[in-house]
Write a structure and sequence with these properties.
Blueprint lengths: L1 E10 L6 H9 L9 E10 L6 E9 L14 E4 L19 E3 L3 H12 L5 E4 L4 H12 L33 H11 L16 H17 L3 E4 L3 E7 L2 E7 L2 E4 L3 E3 L6 H9 L4 E3 L2 E10 H9 L16 E4 L2 E9 L3 E4 L9 E4 L8 E10 L11 H16 L6 E5 H6 L17 E3 L8 H17 L9 E6 L6 E3 L13 E3 L10 H18 L6
Parallel strand pairs: 5-6, 5-11, 6-7, 11-23, 19-20
Antiparallel strand pairs: 1-3, 1-4, 2-3, 8-9, 9-10, 12-22, 13-18, 13-21, 14-15, 15-18, 16-17, 19-21
Helix pairs in contact: 2-5, 2-11
């Protein structure tokens, strides 16, 4: 039997190996009653001005669960058995299942289907990563924007250029399966131990490419530069995916487009699919010196070589609205993430080493459905686009981003110089008044949140904290409805999935939703016959 013993705390200076012994004693086990033990998860607790290491330990014991004794404050649970996937459906597919999109949801849906012999066909409007890298590099260096190949679109989706953070609030056994596959395809071993795991943009690209090649080795196909333009139905059943290269007949498909697939959202609405508004968030990228965040989080421990670059997770709520940090990138940079002409979009990324001078994160303010006029389910897309276009115009109409220090935003004046924090946004910046870009409820929430965040992380509300606008793609403003059977109402066979469909919020949860979509197909259909 394998046990997970969590909540084990050690002083920062104490050796990690002590956690193994403490876990054994907490279970009331003798040394000869433990056949194997290892650190399962490790994190740092920075509360109360003292730095503490917190562990979960995995113990193997031949004893039955009923004889275990629990001592101390931690918890003991039996480790769940690995998730077993196998085809169980009886229906025959005349055509391979189609997966639309090669972001985390589509990638894992296709991988599971391929491993079960279904030989999926993946359609991706963007490019494979080597080509995608070249196109993005050209844009970062001042070249033209490619609306189909950019930081939003292409192999790996938007997540391939955002640090590869795997933190999630969902507690789903499929998370273990996702992590196992990422490790199998090249994620560094320490990813498995971190309570807030990340891979890094530089390493994640190789992991994504390895998974895609595995799909192809198992008989799946990946069609790049292929844009979905519609769906053909007979009655209430899916019959074909319509693309710019022609129709592709299929009985079942996973629609795993990202939350920036705006033309496809409009197509779905025009073709009568059920869409609804959902809450989303907009804001800015906030940059600090990483050493400021290290001091604010680690205090007297800051600068110790064994400590990783410090992170933060901040939130403040006023009524129904929240301002919170999102996609925090220690030692990272702010990147140009536009996918449409005439709009500025920012995102953040960092490499595995997280060794850049600055830290950055989105400071996002919630936008509620009732904030938007009319009844169009795509009104949120229109709202995002208006902010992006304002940012584009106010910063010179060449994809430079508007920037302003926190002190100047608070005082209502355009910045004239940078302080210690220099911008990392790769298309250049222009000083501007972000009050002219963001709605009042957004910048007012930002100003209300900053002193509160500064009390949690001293230095966070420094006068020279740099805001770069705009961050609009935190999540989808649209939900593509699906029933309890996961199929879209009125289109049996089509499964809306992942972040773009409004059912996930990050790499891990999107991958889990992709697995769930693949499981639904396997429940109903048997693998393709040779």
């Amino acid at each position: 039997m394998s046990l997970i013993v969590s909540g084990i705390r050690l002083p920062f200076e104490q050796a990690d190996a002590s956690a193994l012994e403490q876990a054994r004693r907490q279970c009331g086990l003798g040394k000869n009653q433990v056949t194997a033990s290892r650190i399962y998860k490790k994190s740092l607790d920075l509360r109360h001005g003292k730095l503490t290491k917190v562990f979960s330990v995995l113990l193997d014991t031949p004893l039955e669960e009923r004889v275990l004794q629990q001592k101390g404050e931690g918890t003991i649970r039996k480790k769940a058995a690995p998730l077993q996937l196998s085809p169980g459906g009886e229906k025959k597919m005349a055509h391979p299942p189609v997966v639309v999109g090669l972001g985390p949801a589509g990638l894992f849906a296709a991988l599971i289907l391929a491993e079960q012999g279904c030989r999926p066909l993946v359609l991706e409007q963007g490019a494979p990563l080597p080509e995608r890298d070249r196109v993005i590099k050209d844009f970062q260096d001042g070249g033209p924007l490619n609306e189909k190949i950019n930081i939003q679109f292409g192999e790996g989706g938007a997540g391939a250029y955002s640090d590869g953070k795997l933190t999630t609030r969902i507690h789903d056994p499929r998370c273990e399966l996702v992590l196992e596959q990422l490790l199998r395809h090249g994620a560094p071993p320490e990813t498995a131990l971190a309570a807030k795991p990340h891979i890094g943009t530089d390493l994640l690209k190789g992991v994504v490419t390895s998974i895609r090649r595995r799909i192809q080795q198992l008989g799946g196909q990946v069609e790049f530069h292929c844009t979905v333009t519609g769906f053909r139905r007979e009655g209430d059943r899916l019959k074909a995916i319509v693309t710019d290269k022609g129709e592709i007949p299929c009985e079942v498909a996973v629609l795993a487009v990202g939350h920036s697939a705006r033309p496809l959202f409009r197509t779905l609405a025009e073709e009568g699919f059920a869409l609804t508004r959902k809450a989303f968030s907009v804001g800015v990228r906030a940059e600090h010196l990483q050493e400021t965040i290290d001091r604010g989080r680690y205090g007297a421990y800051a600068g110790k070589a064994e400590l990783p670059p410090a992170e933060y997770n901040l939130s403040w709520r006023q009524g129904e609205r929240a301002c919170y940090s999102f996609c925090m990138c220690p030692g990272g940079q702010v990147v140009a993430a536009a996918s449409e002409q005439g709009g500025v979009v920012t995102n953040g990324m960092s490499y595995h080493a997280r060794d850049g001078r600055n830290a950055n994160a989105a400071l996002a303010v919630s936008v509620l459905p009732e904030d938007l006029p009319g009844s169009d389910p795509l009104e949120g897309v229109r709202f995002q686009r208006q902010l992006e276009q304002k940012a584009f115009q106010i910063a010179g109409a060449d994809f430079a981003a508007p920037v302003q220090t926190y002190g100047d935003l608070r005082e209502g004046r355009v910045s004239s110089r940078f302080g210690r924090v220099q911008p990392t946004y790769d298309r250049g910046t222009e000083f501007a008044d972000l009050r002219q870009v963001l709605p009042p409820f957004v910048w007012e929430m930002l100003l209300g949140a900053m002193p509160r965040f500064g009390r949690q992380v001293p230095g966070f509300d420094g006068e020279d904290t740099l805001f770069t606008g705009v961050e609009t793609r935190t999540s989808s403003p649209v939900r593509i409805l699906r029933g309890e059977d996961l199929f879209a109402p009125g289109c049996q066979g089509l499964i809306p999935c992942g972040e773009g469909a409004g059912y996930a919020g990050g790499i891990m949860s999107a991958a889990v939703d992709g697995i769930r979509a693949a499981e639904r197909i396997l429940e109903e259909y048997r693998p393709l016959e040779e």
